[in-house]
């Protein structure tokens, strides 16, 4: 069974640009979440989607957005990049929103903003 | 007060000994508790989940939950050098659809 697939693995962007990250969940998983990981703040929740609906959103500015498609694949977008957006962005999928079976993480996209 | 707190370590344990990792949480309505292992440069990997008070064992790993004390722990028996990693405690409130993570404990197993 294929795991959670994230693309691209690495990205270097310039301040002010925008970026789109992609995530394909485990087959059959309809819940997809996004997390940001930095050395200072650790793992922080961005948002969660289930059947194309955003059910929960973390405390991030509106520059961070996401969406989910009918095949459960998800994308997140960051506009007007800032240096502080440099982080590892992790996508995770679950069959039940993490209540009973937890989340399985992808390998992540490492974003560097210069 | 942070929602989920862990001792950041580093925690150093000799090979073959028991490593004990601790986590406290502040939200009393938390219902699902997870331990993730993260090797340097890799993504978190789920190793244990626990939902009710008591102990849950899986191989060399034992998770312990005490909801009255708002405390979760992970024991690793017969520690191996390959267990050297950062261990993340995560908590989920029923219906919240999000995990709240602690800062992680860096564990080093010394041969």
Structural class of chain B: mainly beta
Interface with most residues: A-B, 27 and 25 residues
Distance, first to last CA of chain A: 37 Å
Helix content of chain A: under 10%
Largest sheet of chain A: 7 strands, mixed
Average pLDDT of chain A works out at 94
Helix content of chain B: under 10%
Which helices and strands appear, and what pairs or packs with what?
The complex is a heterodimer of chains A (114) and B (111).
Chain A: E1 5-7, E2 10-13, E3 19-24, E4 31-38, E5 42-50, E6 53-57, E7 64-68, E8 74-78, E9 87-94, E10 104-105, E11 109-113
Parallel strand pairs in A: 2-11
Antiparallel strand pairs in A: 1-3, 3-8, 4-5, 4-9, 5-6, 7-8, 9-10, 9-11
Chain B: E1 4-6, E2 11-14, E3 19-25, E4 30-38, E5 45-50, E6 54-58, E7 61-66, E8 71-76, E9 85-93, E10 100-101, E11 105-110
Parallel strand pairs in B: 2-11
Antiparallel strand pairs in B: 1-3, 3-8, 4-5, 4-9, 6-7, 7-8, 9-10, 9-11
Can you tell me about this structure?
- The complex is a heterodimer of chains A (114) and B (111).
- Chain A is 0% helix and 53% strand.
- Chain A has strands at 5-7, 10-13, 19-24, 31-38, 42-50, 53-57, 64-68, 74-78, 87-94, 104-105, 109-113.
- In chain A, the strands form two sheets. In chain A, strands 2, 4, 5, 6, 9, 10 and 11 form a seven-stranded mixed sheet that branches. A four-stranded antiparallel sheet of chain A has the order 1-3-8-7, with no helix packed on it.
- Chain A is globular, with a radius of gyration of 13 Å.
- In chain B, a hairpin with a 6-residue loop joins strand 9 (85-93) and strand 10 (100-101).
- Chain B has 111 residues and is mainly β.
- Chain B has no helices and eleven strands.
- The mean pLDDT of chain B is 94.
- Chain B is 0% helix and 57% strand.
- Chain B is globular, with a radius of gyration of 13 Å.
- Chain B has strands at residues 4-6, 11-14, 19-25, 30-38, 45-50, 54-58, 61-66, 71-76, 85-93, 100-101, 105-110.
- Classes of the chains: A mainly beta (114), B mainly beta (111).
- The A-B interface holds A 31, 33, 35, 42-45, 48, 50, 55-56, 58, 88, 90, 92, 97-108 and B 31-32, 34, 36, 42-46, 49, 51, 88, 90, 92, 94-104.
